[in-house]
Amino acid sequence: MNVIILSPHYPPNQINYARAVKRHGDVAIGIGDSASISDELRSVLDEYVYIADMTQYDTMLRSVGYLTSKYGKIDRIDSQNEFWLGIESQLREDFNITGQKPAQTDINRSKVGMKRVAQSAGLPVARGVEVESLEQLRQFIGEVGLPVVVKPVVGVGAAATYCISHEDEIESTYHKIHGRYICEEYIRGSIVTFDGFVDRHGHVEFQTSHEYNSGVMECVNAGRSIYYYNVTDIDPALIELGHRCIEAFGVRERFFHIEWFRVSEHEYCFLEINVRPPGLYTIDMMNYSADIDLYEMWAASFHDEYPYRDNRLIYSVGFAGRRSNEVFKYSNEEIIQMYGNEIIEHAPVPGAFSDAMGEYYFMIRHRDVDRVRSMLKDILELR
Question: DSSP labels for 151-167?
């Protein structure tokens, strides 16, 4: 089997996908926009093709054509990265490769398309409208009231997302937006996720749920530090909604990251679906939570193999990202002394992720969710 991994050097854990492909005896090929890659990554890949601008589709098309002539039919192409989902789906269509094609990807990346699919499946969703004029924005706000959230129809994370809380912010916010935007009613509740991996037959092989101290949008806009952690007992109501969502969006042989508002103890409102892994080091956190290897699960799924039958969540694993503009009660060294063996990783956050996740992170693990939550609060406690 020939597998192309787009931009294998970004994010840092992409090398784990390549290693998993090689463990199954398959060919791992990298296409990336970095002229220089590490010796470690180069030693894993069968070939690395450098493309200065991967957004130039003709160049991508010719490169995959070259690789096809050299290695034979390409069986899978994947980036595990939001930015490249459109290009990888177009390449799949043009080369008849298994996986999501543009028609499906366009829906799964569009806030408008997501809302329509969720509504058709009977999932609870926030009211929303695509913003085409200032008058329309004012009319929608008149119907649902303030606050409202304005965000790109196709966006990554909380980038260019705004919350309108007062009348005098409506016009100024409208003049900030460019391109396609959607305005949604503000749902009061905490953000929870339903994350995992689904095989080619629609069976969810692994599932977990994460909770946050605050939404990413709020943390980015207010410049606050963020933490999140997985629970070890997922609400059955959330599992049922999550599985319905996966089926409605036709997710197959993919990681998924679905965000919900929890509006009451067992009541949820659909926010959005991302047909890719949750961001940064969350796959590693998921591995730590169940003592498994999701990179292996992903590569094994190409062969209809199931390396793990018991995927129960054993640990709660938490991530705390510290922002350099905040002054914390405890220094990094004091946190390390306080929690020692419960800290499984700590390091600077890669620059591309620091706007959302802070400049330095701690990853911790414990069987007791309350203990993890308490440690995360200590890590981010301000002086």
Answer: EESS-STTTT-EEE-SG
**Rg for the chain (alpha carbons), in Å?**
21
Task: For residue 173, give Cα distances in angstroms to 138, 148, 160, 163, 183.
Answer: 12, 11, 11, 9, 11
Q: pLDDT tens digits, residue range 96-105?
A: 999 999 999 9
- Residues 336-348 as b or e (16 or more Cβ within 10 Å = b): eeebeeebeebee
Least Cα distance to 363 among 329, 321, 311, 314 occurs for 321
Please give the torsion angle defined by the CA atoms of residues 209, 212, 215 and 219, in that order, rounded to the nearest 10 degrees: -140
Torsion sign over Cα 355, 361, 367, 370: negative
- The string of pLDDT tens digits covering residues 349-382 is 987 788 888 999 999 999 999 999 999 999 999 9
Reported as type and span, the H/E element at residue 344 is: strand 343-348
Count other C-beta atoms under 10 Å from residue 207's C-beta: 20
Per residue in 305-339, pLDDT tens?
998 877 899 999 999 999 999 999 999 999 999 99
